[in-house]
Amino acid sequence: MDSAYVFDSEQATKLLMKNYELVKTSGVSFIDKRIRFLIARLFAGNNEIVQPEKFYEINKEFKRQLGMFTALNGNVRASLVGLLMASDNGKRDSVGQVISNYNTLIEAGFKRTEYTYFAAYLLLESENPTLTAKKAKTIHQLFKKDHPFLTKSEDVTTAVFLANLKEENVEKLAEVTEYYFQEFAAKGFRKNDSLQFLATTGTLLYGEKDSKFIRRVDNVVEELRQKGVKIKPLHYSSIGILAFVMDGRKIDSGLVNLIDDLQNQPGLRFGREFVTALAISLYTEKQSGQMSKEQLEGLMVNVHILIAMEQAAAMSAAAAASAAAASS
């Protein structure tokens, strides 16, 4: 870990905006602006530039393979293309595999929603998608047992992520997740789907009940509040990953500078809540490169994949909000 590392908010902002413009002019139309920014953030977080021609071609391939009658709308399709490209899975066979995984999840009992497509992307990590999908359905049912009114179709993504773990005892996975859920709720976090994802993040990172994670998240929240950052449910998952990545290190002024820089961008006028979520996620991705050897060796799940998952969840929410706005 480089103790002299300083986060450059200006450079991060420029890279994000450059990728945004490339996605915007890629020829893939009718994408919600928030989705474009989330896709741009995937590449900016990796210090990469999106290839607009490839983005267009993979989007076209999804349309070709799925045809007209599908739950996959333009926002979700573009989001999946971004996720595939950012994780070096931007190939034709990856498109076919995502579609195949989607059908596998439907056969396992999940509903036909945009969230199921994001879960299908996560199933790319599985060596046996059919078994993992069945395991995920069992986990989802256990979630529903604990939270019958809270657990909905969007929780398919968290269920699949947990199912990808080597731990076969699904009751243990659900129990550990419930522990984090209740502990964070006791700290004042709102009981909603965002808290469910934060709780899942704890299970994915530690694999067991660990009060250290609770304390670190609590410390990060307090640190951000002292810096004038208001914490909303949209930020929960990013904060959980950030708390792990920072490993007790202090958050430098770069994060607040990034929030301010992004807020001043002409295309980012969605309100501070969305901008803050985007900034925390981007800051976390950059800081993850400074993790210690001990942190990396102890990981149960790849942090970059976890951050991508957090982005998938954010994209799901943004896509759903866009669909709701379009139908109202």
Q: Any overview of this molecule?
A:
With 328 residues, the protein is an all-alpha fold. The chain has one domain. It has helices at 9-24, 33-45, 52-66, 74-86, 92-107, 114-122, 129-146, 156-163, 170-186, 193-206, 211-226, 236-246, 254-263, 272-287, 293-298, 303-327. The mean pLDDT is 89. Pfam families: DUF4003. This is Lin2792 protein. InterPro entries: DUF4003.
Give structural attributes.
328 residues; mainly alpha; 16 helices
What ranges have pLDDT less than 50 throughout 5 or more consecutive residues? none
Strand tally: 0
Radius of gyration: 19 Å
Total domains, how many? 1
Strand content: under 5%
Number of separate helices: 16
N/C terminus separation: 49 Å
The rough form would be described as globular
- How much helicity do the residues have? 55-70%
**What structural class results from the helix and strand content?**
mainly alpha
- Major β-sheet, in short? none
Overall pLDDT level: 89
Give the H and E element order.
Answer: HHHHHHHHHHHHHHHH
Topology overview:
Elements: H1 9-24, H2 33-45, H3 52-66, H4 74-86, H5 92-107, H6 114-122, H7 129-146, H8 156-163, H9 170-186, H10 193-206, H11 211-226, H12 236-246, H13 254-263, H14 272-287, H15 293-298, H16 303-327
Organism: Listeria innocua serovar 6a (strain ATCC BAA-680 / CLIP 11262)
Protein name: Lin2792 protein
Pfam families: DUF4003
